[in-house]
Write a structure and sequence with these properties.
The chain has five helices and seven strands. With 183 residues, it is α/β, with parallel strands linked by helices. The protein is elongated, with a radius of gyration of 24 Å.
Length: 183
């Protein structure tokens, strides 16, 4: 019997998702000192939870508490904690600290900018941070976002007009300051 090689690959085609993951695992993540401290705090949180969860095996359910109350005292499983710790540890190793400009003259990482959003007659405050953990509720936007890439290098008083996701954006830079996460 003759074997048909046209249907069998001669060599294994690498999985693109695996290759992309390997590249992402090695890529540096530019962050501010504040973002590093935040990630370290989260790592410590999961390390403490791991210890608490490990101790939960020896804790018995009190007769007066419900099962849900018992679970609340020990919310994460050991594998969940270990996975979170592993992911955060790998991420922290990839972090590269960027210095914070003291008196920035142009839009860059670790700056807070105030912009006039012309079409909407609103003033917005944007905090440009690294690619680590960001909090949108604090108006933190990673410097690698498409919006920030359009604003990088702009100086106070400069106007930038561009299209982003089928929307025309017209910003005038009103102020630029060093980002202070405590404000």
């Amino acid at each position: 019997m003759i074997k048909d090689f046209t249907t069998e690959p001669i060599f294994k085609i690498p999985d693109l998702k695996e290759i992309q993951k390997e590249i992402e695992d090695e890529k540096e993540i530019i962050v501010t000192e504040y973002q590093i401290r935040r990630a370290e705090k989260r790592l410590r949180f999961y390390q403490i939870k791991l210890e608490e969860t490990s101790n939960c095996k020896h804790i018995e359910k009190h007769p007066s508490e419900s099962f849900e109350e018992f679970i609340e005292r020990c919310p994460l499983s050991v594998p969940e904690c270990l996975k979170k710790i592993e992911v955060l540890s790998k991420e922290l190793k990839r972090y590269k600290l960027v210095s914070i400009p003291q008196n920035p003259q142009e839009v860059s990482i670790s700056t807070t900018i105030t912009v006039d959003d012309s079409p909407f007659n609103t003033v917005r405050r944007l905090n440009i941070v690294g690619d680590g953990i960001t909090y949108p509720d604090r108006s933190e936007i990673p410097y690698s976002s498409r919006l920030v890439k359009k604003l990088l290098g702009a100086k106070k008083g400069e106007e930038r007009k561009f299209t982003l996701e089928e929307r025309t954006i017209h910003y005038k830079i009103l102020s630029i300051a060093a980002y202070n996460p405590r404000e």
